[in-house]
Design a protein that fits this description.
Elements: H1 15-23, H2 38-50, H3 63-75, E1 120-121, H4 122-137, E2 144-147, H5 152-158, E3 169-173, H6 182-200, E4 203-204, E5 213-214, E6 224-227, E7 241-242
Parallel strand pairs: 4-5
Antiparallel strand pairs: 1-7, 2-3, 3-6, 5-6
The structure holds zinc ion (2 copies).
């Protein structure tokens, strides 16, 4: 049976559950382990409450929910032109280099894993979609995706060594508003981070394992950087990386 053919609910297991856990990643969020437990149920209830405006959410993902999810996704398209690497030399998503290679002299953790992943992780793109929804609902201007994939060629062009944007991260920004000071921009980003912690289950910084992260204001004062670098390898498997919108 295809995704959408049957209800998904507490106790279910399998690939449909993985797909749903990812699609709802910007509503609270849980690990995409294919096991529908209390965390997944809270995700569904958040979606039912916030998107479907149900006053008594059931936690069961039924036919009405699939319809609402389809409409939600249609209303929040992702422009992959802004997701692709701008180096002009790779195919938009690196060249698959440096798997299991780490930055010299650094611990062998994901933050220093030099791999060019084969696309951008679904979890971060779904989180971006929900982020646009949450921000709009709280009177923020619509953000734009300013940075997606950045391969090693692009890194070298820019004198950068960060591995974050090789499929595990995006940056978003708010267009400058008329008459606004840099301080206003910074304060708005602070408020946006707080909202996303509350609504989408982000952590600020990278202290917790298997949670999506926002860079703190000390690093990203006037933009929002979100990434999945705290996840263990099984949640960063190749199947989770996509190169165009039809794969979402
Ligand atoms: Zn490139
Ligand atoms: Zn970034």
């Amino acid at each position: 049976m295809a995704f959408g053919d049957k209800n998904i609910q507490r106790g279910d297991k399998g690939s449909d559950v993985v797909a749903l856990q990812l699609k709802l990643n910007g509503f609270r969020g849980t690990v995409w382990d294919g096991d529908f437990g209390p965390g997944s149920e809270l995700q569904v209830m958040a979606f039912q409450r916030e998107v479907m405006k149900l006053t008594t959410p059931s936690g069961v993902f039924d036919a009405n929910c699939f319809d609402a999810l389809h409409e939600f996704e249609t209303n929040h398209p992702i422009d992959f032109a802004s997701v692709r690497c701008p180096c002009g030399q790779c195919n938009g998503f690196g060249q698959g280099r440096f798997k299991n290679k780490y930055r010299t002299g650094m611990p062998k953790i994901e933050a220093y894993h030099r791999r060019e992943y084969p696309g951008v992780h679904k979890a971060i793109l779904y989180a971006f979609r929900a982020t646009c929804f949450h921000l709009k609902n709280h009177d923020f201007p619509l953000p734009i995706l300013t940075s997606g994939y950045r391969c090693w060629i692009h890194n070298e062009m820019k004198g950068r060594r960060s591995t974050n944007h090789m499929g595990k991260a995006i940056d978003i920004d708010f267009p400058a508003q008329p008459g606004e000071l840099k301080r206003d921009d910074g304060e708005r980003c602070d408020r946006a981070r707080d909202l996303l912690v509350d609504k989408a289950g982000f952590q600020i910084g990278w202290h917790g394992n298997n949670r999506k992260a926002l860079e703190p204001a000390s690093i990203a004062p006037t933009w929002l950087h979100m990434d999945v670098r705290c996840y263990s390898q099984k949640y960063l498997a190749d199947i989770f990386f996509v190169t165009d919108e039809t794969q979402l």
